[in-house]
């Protein structure tokens, strides 16, 4: 009997280690208080638990791409509290409308109606619903834009652009973690994370493998969902379809066939097709996302990811984040993603504003903005039109990647050089003086201080003003920032000022890239066919050369300032610097967005102007 038991146990373990294991036999559930009737029952239970534990170890060890931030113990996963159910949730075959034997939880009809109403409202058009149920998460087939997600329908661009920004973060700055070509891995790399101040990524996007892009996409989805879940949980919404354990192209065919003729017009439609899994382990959630990737690549992908983010945050928390919970998250009449959706995916909270912190309106009323630093940022054309003010959290993210908003579309701006946001010596000096001045400003931001406070500023900032200038500034009994700043600009650097006769000190020259995921005709991507040009329908990627003069450079000097032809970064006035005449400035609405981050930036590009619509 003992030999037979050991043989059964070895058989169970072999079954659990197969790449596509058959469904292990399970005994019928027992009542919680029922006693075990015989020693055979004890042995059978032992074999089942051992096999289930082996299945759990298989899931843990099969994840080949850990989270960049943390990898909590898989034993903490909500989905894995019962190891048997955890393994089954990856393999079980399900069908639309089937309530038993399915993978994950089925939303109640009340939850589904609340979700549908929150996203689309009550009077949504069929066109908007079609836009949101016909957009998958798929990369461009064009080699030059192969790192980009393609948008075919209007509407979900806010979801795609924000996810694209995180994908670029992993492709550009975590190449070793997603298996990118080794030529793009820096020499100073250690333990997976890059040194932000020293790293310049490669622009050889055509070298990206499909596997690397898939890993970057899955890691980005996992990162965003856990951010929405306060780093404690991620909810993954997938479809209830038979045959998702099938490998290769057959799985895509099964999904496509199941979606034939499917329309989403009510909460009841969502309730029939959605299945929800909750995870507290990033490692296990990554495995689930990797398994379900074909579902997210299907035409329902963008909507499923948005639903996953909303459920990860929690519908009650989403409504609490918003200033006006009565409005739908998808805006009428064109079905665009609201700023609340974009902010949810950027910072994990569905706040409607882009300024830092909260704005107190008095009477216990306030508006909610961004309360924390973010991985990737946000710029908007609306700021250049004075409709809003983007705060420092979104303008200065951890990585040089920004979602760019226009009146009707979202795109992505990024740099390969992580130092483009670094302040040079003179900018740091300006910031130091301004901080010292603001610390003495008791006017509520009015920009003036007392004489006593002014002397404190001079001491803290190490500024030695000639007596005649000091007497002039103090003659009225208070000092205005604008007058003080003009004196600093004319004061020699040896006395603590910022006088720069050449105009080159503090100048920046660097490259930015702009990606528009919506497929358009592109003359830059035309191919010669029998001597003729053929317009190519593809996303747009534009490289911009950006030159930023020091913020204190007089306007009349900017037209004649020379530009170093050396490599990008902060320029100096050294003897070996080669100097050439600047190229004429080019303009497009994107330049106005860039200038909200780098004031008075001068931009140039080759070919068609970058489009943010």
Automatic annotation (TrEMBL):
Reactions mediated catalytically: Thiol-dependent hydrolysis of ester, thioester, amide, peptide and isopeptide bonds formed by the C-terminal Gly of ubiquitin (a 76-residue protein attached to proteins as an intracellular targeting signal)
Q: Which GO terms describe its molecular function?
A: cysteine-type deubiquitinase activity; K48-linked deubiquitinase activity
Amino acid composition bias (Basic and acidic residues), ranges on this chain:
40-59
> So what EC number does this one have?
3.4.19.12
Query: Flavoprotein among the record's keywords?
Result: no
Assigned keywords, A-Z: Ubl conjugation pathway
Q: Where is the Deubiquitinating enzyme MINDY-3/4 conserved domain?
A: 116-490
Residues of the region (Disordered) are 1-95, 563-587
- In this chain, composition skew of type Low complexity spans 62-75
Q: Is the keyword NADP assigned to this protein?
A: no
Mind telling me which SMART domains this protein's record contains? Answer: DUF4205
GO annotation terms (biological process):
protein K48-linked deubiquitination; proteolysis
Query: Which Pfam family, just one, is annotated for this protein?
Result: MINDY-3_4_CD
- According to its UniProt record, which protein family does this protein belong to? Belongs to the MINDY deubiquitinase family. FAM188 subfamily.
What's its job? Hydrolase that can remove 'Lys-48'-linked conjugated ubiquitin from proteins.
Name by which UniProt lists this protein: ubiquitinyl hydrolase 1
Species whose genome carries this gene = Salix purpurea
């Amino acid at each position: 009997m003992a030999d037979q038991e050991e043989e059964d146990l070895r058989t169970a373990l072999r079954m659990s280690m197969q790449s596509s294991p058959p469904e292990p036999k399970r005994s019928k559930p027992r009542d919680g208080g029922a006693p075990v009737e015989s020693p055979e029952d004890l042995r059978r239970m032992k074999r089942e638990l051992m096999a289930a534990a082996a299945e759990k170890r298989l899931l843990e060890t099969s994840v080949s791409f850990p989270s960049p931030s943390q990898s909590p113990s898989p034993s903490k996963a909500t989905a894995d509290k019962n190891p048997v159910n955890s393994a089954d949730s990856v393999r079980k075959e399900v069908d639309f409308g089937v309530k038993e034997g399915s993978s994950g939880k089925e939303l109640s009809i009340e939850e589904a109606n609340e979700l549908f109403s929150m996203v689309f409202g009550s009077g949504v058009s069929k066109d908007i619903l079609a836009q949101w149920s016909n957009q998958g998460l798929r990369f461009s087939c064009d080699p030059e834009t192969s790192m980009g997600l393609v948008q075919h329908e209007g509407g979900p661009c806010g979801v795609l652009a924000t996810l694209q920004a995180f994908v670029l973060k992993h492709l550009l700055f975590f190449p070793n973690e997603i298996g990118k070509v080794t030529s793009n891995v820096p020499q100073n790399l250690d333990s997976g994370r890059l040194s932000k101040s020293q790293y310049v990524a490669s622009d050889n996007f055509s070298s990206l493998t499909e596997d690397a892009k898939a890993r970057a996409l899955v890691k980005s989805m996992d990162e965003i969902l856990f951010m929405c879940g306060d780093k404690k949980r991620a909810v993954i919404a997938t479809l209830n379809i038979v045959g998702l354990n099938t490998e290769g192209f057959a799985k895509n065919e099964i999904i496509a066939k199941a979606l034939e003729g499917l329309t989403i017009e009510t909460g009841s439609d969502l309730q029939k097709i959605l299945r929800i899994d909750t995870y507290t382990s990033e490692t296990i959630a990554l495995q689930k996302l990797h398994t379900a990737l074909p579902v997210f690549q299907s035409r329902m992908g963008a909507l499923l990811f948005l639903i996953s983010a909303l459920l990860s945050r929690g519908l009650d928390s989403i409504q609490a984040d918003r200033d006006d919970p009565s409005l739908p998250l998808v805006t009428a009449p064109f079905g665009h993603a609201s700023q609340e959706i974009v902010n949810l995916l950027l910072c994990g909270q569905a706040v409607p504003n882009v300024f830092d912190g909260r704005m107190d309106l008095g009477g216990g009323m306030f508006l909610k903005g961004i309360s924390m630093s973010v991985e990737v940022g946000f710029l908007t054309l609306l700021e250049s039109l004075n409709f809003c003010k983007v705060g420092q959290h979104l303008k200065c993210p951890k990585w040089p990647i920004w979602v760019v908003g226009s009146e009707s579309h979202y795109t992505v701006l990024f740099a390969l050089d992580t130092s483009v946001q670094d302040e040079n010596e003179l900018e740091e000096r300006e910031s130091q003086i301004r901080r010292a001045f603001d610390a003495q400003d008791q006017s509520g931001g009015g920009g003036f201080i007392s004489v006593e406070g002014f002397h404190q500023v001079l001491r803290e900032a190490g500024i030695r003003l000639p007596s005649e200038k000091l007497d002039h500034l103090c003659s009225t009994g208070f000092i205005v920032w604008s007058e003080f700043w003009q004196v600093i600009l004319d004061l020699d650097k040896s006395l603590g000022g910022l006088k720069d006769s050449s105009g080159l000190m503090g100048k920046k020259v660097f490259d930015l890239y702009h990606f528009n995921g919506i497929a358009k005709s592109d003359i830059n991507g035309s191919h010669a066919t029998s001597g003729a040009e053929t317009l190519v329908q593809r996303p747009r990627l534009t490289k911009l050369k950006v030159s930023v003069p020091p913020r204190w450079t007089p306007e009349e000097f900017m037209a004649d300032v020379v530009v170093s032809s050396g490599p990008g970064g902060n320029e100096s006035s050294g003897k070996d610097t080669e100097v050439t005449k600047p190229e004429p400035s080019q303009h497009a609405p994107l330049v106005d967005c860039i200038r909200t981050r780098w004031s008075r930036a001068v931009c140039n590009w080759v070919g068609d102007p970058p489009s943010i619509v």
